[in-house]
Amino acid sequence: MEQPTPQLFVYGSLRSGFRNPAYEYLTRHFTLVGEAVVRGRFYHNGEFPIAVPTKADNFLTGELYQLTSPHEFPWVFEQLDDYEGLNVMPGEIPLYKREMVPVFQNARESLAWIYWYNRPVSGMEEIPTGDIMQYLQQKDRPGQS
Fold first, then answer.
1. β-sheet with 41-44: strand ranges across
2. pLDDT range class, residue 141, cuts 50, 70, 90
3. Which of 14, 55, 131, 132 allows an S-S link to 10, with CB 3.0 to 4.6 Å?
4. Nearest to 10, CA basis, from 42, 43, 29, 38
5. Taking the CB of residue 139, how many other CB atoms lie within 10 A of it?
6. What's CA 24's distance to the chain center, in Å?
7. Could you please report the per-residue DSSP string of 68-129?
8. What is the pLDDT of residues 30-77, one digit of tens each?
9. In what helix (H) or strand (E) does residue 20 lie, and over which residues does it extend?
């Protein structure tokens, strides 16, 4: 049985609108499928927004990408794991964890890898919107907190 081509869901700094230097890496190894959503919640950890999974009907907006060359999966994802801080020294806790999740796009469900925040969120401010870009745009407007 043929395995489906690996996909990646991004919701933060790797989205196309952020112009992060790591996005160039993403575009070399992945093809944009389009906007999609996953179940999750956003929080602000004091420095930047983070996401955690939920079973509730809270959805996070992001972009779905498909790996261009599936045979490169181990190498490509090792680089992304490094970028997301999964490769840590023994005894350290990674800042993020990579998991496979259901992704919803235009009434279609598929599976994709995602990087979730890997630390407790207690005491953090929950971000009411499911779209980090929208949240940051509102936050940067004069008169907004």
1. 49-52, 41-44, 125-127
2. low
3. 14
4. 38
5. 12
6. 16
7. S-GGGHHHHHHHHHHHTT----TTPPPSEEEEEEEEEETTEEEEEEEEEE-S--TTSEEESS
8. 999 999 999 999 998 888 889 999 999 999 999 999 999 999 999 999
9. none
Residue 3 DSSP class = P
- In degrees, rounded to 5, the angle at the alpha carbon of residue 9 between the alpha carbons of residues 7 and 12 is 150
* DSSP assignment letter at 17: G
Name the token pair of 82. 């490094």
How far is residue 74's CA from residue 58's CA, in Å, rounded to a whole number? 31
Burial class (CB in 10 A: 0-12, 13-18, 19+), 94: middle
How far apart, in whole angstroms, are the C-alpha atoms of residue 30 and residue 73? 11
Structure tokens at 30: 């992945």
